[in-house]
Structure formats: C-alpha cells, structure tokens
C-alpha cells in the first residue's frame, strides 16, 4: 500500500467515525478539565479558609452528591441510551429532568427528617434550620445536572456537556477566589457550599443560552408516560450503581460526624488525590465493557490487560500515599499535615479494592448477573461504612485503615469471579442483549461513567 493510499484510508476512517471520536474526546476532556479545576478548587479552599469551614463544606457537598444520585433514580444512564431514539427528544428530556428534580427534593426532605429525628450532628452539616431548604435545593439542582449531562451525551451533544462542566468548575472556582479575597478565613462552610450551588446554576443558564442561540427550544411540555414500562430495569441498574458509589460519597460525611470538620478537611484533601488516581481504573473498566460485546472472544485477554494496568496504577498510588501522604497534605495546607499526621498513609492501598470493584461490575453487567452483583456490592458497601464508623473510635487513622481493610477484603472476595472471567471466553449468548447490539440502554455500559464522575465532582 502506498503512502497516499494509506493516508486516504486513514482519512476515510476518521471521517466515518468523526461523530464518535469527537463526542468521546469531548467527554474525556470534560472529565479531565473538571478533575483539574476541582483539585485547584479544594487546594485554594484549604489555603484560604479555616479547616472547620472546609471540612463542613466538603461533607455537605459529598452528602448532597449522594442524595442527588439517589434522587436521579437512574434516569441519566437510561436517557444516555434511549434519548437518541426518540422522535421528540425535548419533551422526553424535560420529563426526566422534572422527575429527577422532584425525586431529589423528596430524598432531601427525608434526610432532613431523619437528621432532626436522630438529634445528632447530622443536622449541623448543612448549617442550621434556616439553610435546610437551600441544601435540598442544591440536591435537586445537582440531580438535574447529572441527568442533563448524560442526556447530552446520548444526543451526541458532548460539546454542550463539556461547556456546562467547564463553566461549572470555573465559575465555582472564581466565586471561591472572590470569597477568599473578600471574607478570608471568616468564610463559613455554608458560603463555600453556596459557590458549588451557584456554579451549577450558572452552568445551566449557559447551556440554556447556547441552545437559544442555536435556535433550539429550551422548555417543552414534559413527557412522563414513556418511562413507566422500564422503571423496573432502570431502578435495578440504579441500585447496582449506588452500591458502588455510596461508600465513596458517604465517607467524608462519616468522618465529619464521627470525628470533626477539621479532621475531615485534612481527610478530604487526601480523598481528592485518591479519587483522581482512581480515574484510571474506572476509565479502563468502562472502556472494557463498552468494547466487550463487539469482540467477546477477546474479553479475557483484554480483562487481564486492564487489570494489569490498573494494578500498576494502584501500586504507584499506594506507594505515593505510604511515603508522601504528609507532603500531599502539606501541599494543600501545612495545618492538614499536623491534623492527620501519618494517619492516612495507608489510604492508597484502597485503590486495589476499588479497581477490583470496577472490573467486577463490568464483568457482572456483561454476564447479566445484575441481581447477584447488587447483593454482593450492597453487602460490601455496608461493610465499608460499618468499618469506617467502627474505626472512628481510634481517630482518623482508625477510620481510614478500617475502611481500607474492608475495601481490601471486598476486593479479595471478588477475585475468584474476576479470575474465572480472565480464563473463560464470553459468547454472544452470555452477554447482555443491549451490549450485544452495541447499544448502552438502561445504563448497562455507561454507568461506569458514574465512577469517573466521582473524581470530577470532588
């Protein structure tokens, strides 16, 4: 083949796959940009505000993300696979946004009732009774953005999704800098939380403005009936996703309630670094599932490769925390290194268990064992939270190390299933129908982006 012919073939391939490559590239770029800006956001917060304010804000934001994910009820992944098939996508999307908004308000109010009933520090996370509704509004707004982002990907409008996430990350950072310049260390946790809320709101306004500028309608009469026949499937996949996500979103909240906001400020700094490192195994597991159905006979070898690369990243993460944990905290704020000491030096070991969980999720989705996987991962989630709560009596080191032990045990229990998958070739009869068709319906494949989103929302 001549050079000219090769160039022509490559150009033809790129032209045929331009939509896929462009949307995948923008999705990856959006994740990278929000992760970087999110890191800078928390670094500036650590350097500019008191540990108590940062710790309370981090706990409130983590809790808000958890409640928003619960209230989203799996509609985001469902839309990602289905909205492109709808002749009237606008009403379909409006119905999903309205449903997630309403469900998140209900979830937020239920949380407030539980917090008031238990009469513990749960209620103080969001400030005082006067700010409760503001917190619930934040949950609802976050749920809307979660659903919208995945719907935009399903519509192959990842450029809008990229714009929304970059605007959100940049605007909340600019607002935080403004707070630092005006109020300084007098800034409260509620004020930091408000930058997150305002950033989400600004990003939605920008997306609406871009749609209006492009001549598209923004408001449609919501369509709800189309969701009824598939609610069971949507809820099933949502339950599985939440089993993986819940411990990661709850842990900063647990540290604040069981220990203190100041300790959580130091913990959350290390937690942010860990979640950025976990982007690699989460991305590998996501891609592994996405391509498995097209060439099932290559799945075992690709799984081995993905696991091998993930383990290398996990080993580097574990070593970095072991020898550099105090330095990491010092980079955020010298006081954090004093608060946590060497209590977080084994936190990086958890990366191994988390990576195994991501790959186990991909394998079980592929083999249509969602019910069994949900039971296993839900049990693991309960174990993780119970270990973190139980370890709190030994301080931050106890909370972190007990959680690491729980995640590691969970990962070890998943190893037999992963080992079996690396030795047996998947067939078209054993993989999920939607995956076999190359379509990610009902969150079957692209729910792994939820794991990627944990880091970018940190």
From TrEMBL:
Keywords: Membrane, Plasmid, Transmembrane, Transmembrane helix
Coiled-coil spans in chain: none
Domain of life: Bacteria
Keyword DNA-binding appears in the UniProt entry: no
Transmembrane segments: 20-44, 56-80, 92-114, 134-153, 165-184, 190-214, 235-259, 265-293, 305-329, 335-358, 370-396, 402-421
InterPro entries xref list: PolySynth_Transporter
Keyword Transmembrane: yes
Cited PANTHER family: LOCUS PUTATIVE PROTEIN 1-RELATED (PTHR43424)
Protein name: Transmembrane protein
């Amino acid at each position: 083949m001549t050079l000219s012919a090769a160039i022509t073939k490559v150009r033809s391939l790129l032209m045929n796959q331009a939509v896929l490559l462009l949307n995948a590239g923008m999705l990856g770029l959006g994740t990278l940009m929000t992760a970087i800006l999110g890191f800078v956001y928390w670094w500036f917060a650590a350097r500019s505000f008191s540990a108590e304010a940062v710790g309370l804000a981090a706990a409130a934001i983590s809790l808000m993300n958890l409640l928003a994910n619960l209230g989203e009820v799996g509609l985001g992944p469902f839309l990602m696979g289905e909205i492109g098939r709808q002749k009237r996508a606008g009403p379909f999307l409006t119905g999903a946004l309205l449903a997630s908004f309403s469900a998140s308000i209900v979830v937020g109010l239920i949380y407030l009732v539980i917090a008031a009933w238990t009469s513990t520090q749960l209620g103080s996370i969001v400030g005082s009774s006067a700010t409760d509704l503001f917190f619930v509004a934040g949950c609802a707004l976050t749920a809307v953005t979660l659903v919208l982002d995945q719907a935009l990907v399903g519509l192959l409008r990842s450029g809008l999704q990229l714009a929304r996430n970059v605007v959100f990350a940049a605007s909340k950072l600019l607002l935080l800098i403004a707070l630092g310049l005006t109020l300084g260390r007098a800034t409260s946790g509620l004020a930091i939380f408000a930058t997150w809320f305002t950033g989400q709101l600004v990003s939605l306004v920008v997306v609406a403005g871009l749609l209006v500028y492009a001549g598209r309608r923004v408001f449609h009469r919501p369509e709800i009936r189309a969701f009824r026949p598939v609610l069971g499937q949507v809820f099933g996949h949502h339950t599985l996703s939440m089993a993986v996500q819940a411990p990661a979103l709850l842990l900063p909240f647990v540290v604040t309630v069981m220990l203190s906001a100041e300790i959580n400020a130091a913990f959350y700094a290390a937690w942010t670094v860990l979640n950025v490192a976990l982007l690699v195994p989460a991305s590998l597991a996501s891609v592994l599932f996405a391509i498995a159905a097209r060439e099932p006979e290559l799945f075992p070898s690709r799984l081995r490769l993905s696991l091998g690369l993930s383990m290398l990243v996990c080993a580097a993460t574990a070593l970095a925390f072991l020898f550099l944990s105090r330095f990491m905290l010092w980079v955020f704020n010298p006081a954090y290194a004093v608060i946590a000491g060497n209590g977080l030096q084994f936190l990086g070991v958890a990366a191994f268990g988390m990576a195994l969980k991501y790959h186990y999720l991909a394998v079980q989705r592929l083999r249509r064992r969602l019910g069994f996987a949900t039971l296993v991962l839900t049990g693991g989630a309960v174990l993780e939270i119970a270990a973190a709560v139980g370890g709190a009596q030994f301080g931050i080191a106890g909370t972190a190390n007990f959680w690491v032990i729980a995640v590691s045990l969970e990962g070890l229990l998943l190893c037999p299933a992963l080992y079996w998958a690396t030795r047996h070739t998947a067939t078209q009869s054993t993989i999920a129908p939607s995956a076999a068709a190359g379509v990610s319906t009902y969150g079957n494949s692209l729910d792994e982006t939820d794991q990627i989103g944990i880091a970018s929302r940190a």
